[in-house]
Amino acid sequence: MALLEVRGLKVHFHTETGVNQAVDDVSLTVEEGRTLGIVGESGCGKSVTALSIMRLVPDPPGRIIAGQILWNGRDVMKLPVHDLPEFRGREVAMIFQDPMTSLNPVFTIERLLCEVIRKRFRVGKAEARKRALEALNTVGIPDAESRLGNYPHELSGGMKQRILIAMALLCEPKLLIADEPTTALDVTIQKQILYLMKNLQQKNNMALMLITHDIGVIAETCDEVAVMYAGRIVERTDVYTLFSHNRHPYTRSLLTSIPKRGLGKEVPLPTIEGSVPSLFNPPKGCRFAPRCFRRQERCLLEDPQLLPVAENHVTACHFPLEDAV
Amino acid sequence: MTAPLLDVRNLVKRYPVRGGVFARKRGEVHAVEDVSFFIEKGETLGLVGESGCGKSTLGRAIIRLEDATSGSITFDGEDLLALPSRELFDRRRHLQMIFQDPYSSLNPRMTVGEIVREPLIIHRSGSRREQHEEVSALLEKVGMKAEMIDRYPHEFSGGQRQRIGIARALALKPSFIIADEPISALDVSVQAQVLNLMVSLQRELNLTYLFISHDLTVVEYISDRIAVMYLGRIVEIGPTHVIFNSPAHPYTRSLIDAAPVRDPRLRGIAEPIRGETPSPINPPPGCTFHPRCPFAIPRCREVVPPLESHETSGHRVACIRKDEIVGELKRPMAVSASD
Ligand SMILES: Nc1ncnc2c1ncn2[C@@H]1O[C@H](COP(=O)(O)OP(=O)(O)OP(=O)(O)O)[C@@H](O)[C@H]1O
Ligand SMILES: Nc1ncnc2c1ncn2[C@@H]1O[C@H](COP(=O)(O)OP(=O)(O)O)[C@@H](O)[C@H]1O
Ligand code: SF4
Ligand SMILES: [Mg+2]
Ligand SMILES: [Mg+2]
Q1: For residues B258 and A187, what is the distance between their CA atoms, to the nearest angstrom?
Q2: Chain B residues in contact with A158 (beta carbon < 8 A)
Q3: CA-CA distance, B177 to B222, in Å (whole number)?
């Protein structure tokens, strides 16, 4: 049994401008100790998928219309409200893109950490402080002792993200969902944070769901990958197959539109025409059809289903590519 | 040799830091420190570096959106910093800027046509009719349909808004364009469209670019030469292939290493460098990179390394060990990180 299984998830937002079909029929699994990457452009439904798993979709305006979320086989959507805090800390923890919004600005780092520790473990003040210090050391914060007295705004973005990781890991969750954890950071700091997360994952045998819009971050860190486009998963497979034998035209176009090493501007980049569609009125049939270089009549009429094209490889396309990259 | 189109010498820009009850000056942000470089006509110079290193400040100082603290900026043979304001206004039409955020840089209450035409009105360029014709031609040049002329920015996607920003920047037929992170805010799937557009416009109009970005992949693609900035200074500058294949500054190497790999089979080769960028208010003494540098020796904290020619490749590097470490920097660095 998978640690986490999402089946046919569908989430809508009812707003003044209409119904935003943010997530449409998303299915995925995360196995114990593994890393699943979710990659897609801004607005394609990555965060809403993650929030659904945590049961944090704001309702209203959000609504889970259909689907199941199974945690060790148990239906998360049927969890009684009083079990949620435990589920969210000990089973699944989540960190967000903007560390500032998730760190209470009026508390010191010591207080933020100690509160989590004392809620989870029945320990005294001194012991909590000791564990807080250990946690800061584990996530590589130099001079941890003096950092305990700092407020979040006194720390750099990278430091704040380290603190959030420390807080998330204090409860030893079995799955960490990291939603664009490094998007706001510089590349050298991004590298440090990804490195840190992978190390701690191994140490704690924790599963990781890493959400990003950067296909390079996927290449650096993930075992399995789900590619999302306009609210749907269009391709899902292991990371090596995704880069060498992708079958969906969107995945292929995305990878070829990024300049290759050593290539200069003498050669124009392959492009994807048009822009990402609105989810208030998504295209009929295949949502990528208006921009797709393989589009046929059928694509505009019929929804492609996510179907197997090889072992452990599914794609949602009526005409999947045959050749290797 | 003919003179370069742009020649920047010893440019310094500092901002006062005020605080306390009397708003006394408590220090200075060293945003741009002693920067010198040139750009040839028709060339693209890529400017890379991490957040806060001074890229935008340098760009703004060049087109005098901001006054430099000291130094000189020679454009097409004229010292821009010495020009009286009337003549500066006239010169400025040759230097234009494209901004990162196509959402906030376009006036939401103006139509596309008005936005593109505004610089023509300000500079009293042509009759009303000529201006209208020019606007249509500009929109066509950037791949927008003429019927979009009466619509408002919010009706367009990010990529289209950036095209509008480019059309506006081209209105006065500039020869030099500073593009400050022009594609960073765009969806990945439209970034290539805008890059291709910039390259073809450059060819067609013989434009010179200063292309600012924190994304090495993009900068490698578009640039003829690259300048790497760290804490207000250029630490290395040279032809693109030299910067990527034989960097001689340890910071350049660590930037290349930090960029995510493009193939999962290459993951995990380079390790992250330690530490974070220090504050530009109190930069470390000597080479400002020494606290993070795996090659630092005691002398690195004593002397500010000048930007000097490398003995083998000839490109300029600000590191006192540049000639001995270039061999080691050909490969990704595997040094222990702070954690
Ligand atoms: N108007 C200002 N007043 C005071 N300090 C400033 C001002 N503008 C910039 N700075 C400071 O100058 C330094 C350089 O900033 P700049 O915006 O040029 O960086 P950048 O390289 O463009 O960064 P980014 O990649 O984040 O755009 C920073 O420390 C910044 O905080
Ligand atoms: N609280 C909300 N109210 C209304 N619409 C929302 C809300 N949260 C997300 N959406 C919409 O749902 C879609 C998917 O959003 P999201 O999952 O945040 O995308 P991303 O892939 O960038 O994380 C977008 O169209 C977004 O505007
Ligand atoms: S279903 Fe058709 S339009 Fe959609 S990706 Fe496949 S070929 Fe393209
Ligand atoms: Mg998101
Ligand atoms: Mg900037």
Answers
A1: 6
A2: 276
A3: 14
Distance CA A168, CA A121 (A): 14
Q: Please judge whether B261 and A220 are an interchain contact, meaning their C-beta atoms are less than 8 angstroms apart.
A: yes
φ, ψ for residue B335 (rounded to 5)? -120, 160
Name the one residue in this structure whose structure tokens are 């939401």: B108
Amino acid at B126: G
Kindly identify the ligand whose nearest atom is closest to the C-alpha of A184. Answer: 1
What are the CB-based long-range contacts (under 8 Å, 24+) for B302-308? Answer: B307/B36, B307/B233, B307/B234, B307/B235, B307/B237
Q: Is any Cβ of chain A less than 8 angstroms from the Cβ of B269? A: no
Tell me which residue of B75, B91, B78 sits closest to B40, measured CA to CA.
Answer: B75
Give CA–CA dist A83/A75, Å, rounded: 12
Residue B102 touches chain A, beta carbons under 8 Å? no
Partners of residue A219 in chain B, C-beta under 8 Å: 260-264, 266-267
* Residue B43 amino acid letter: E
Coil/strand/helix, residue B15: strand
pLDDT of chain B, 339 residues: tens digit per residue: 578 999 999 999 999 987 666 666 778 899 999 999 999 999 999 999 999 999 999 999 999 889 999 999 999 999 999 888 888 888 889 999 999 877 788 999 999 999 999 999 999 899 999 999 999 999 999 999 888 899 999 988 889 999 999 999 999 999 999 999 999 989 888 999 999 999 999 999 999 999 999 999 999 999 999 999 999 999 999 999 999 999 999 999 999 999 999 899 999 888 899 998 998 988 999 999 999 999 999 999 999 999 999 999 999 999 999 999 999 999 998 744 333
Helices (H), A55-156: 84-86, 99-102, 109-120, 125-138, 144-147
Other C-beta atoms closer than 10 Å to the C-beta of B150 total 9
Give the DSSP H or E segment for A316: none
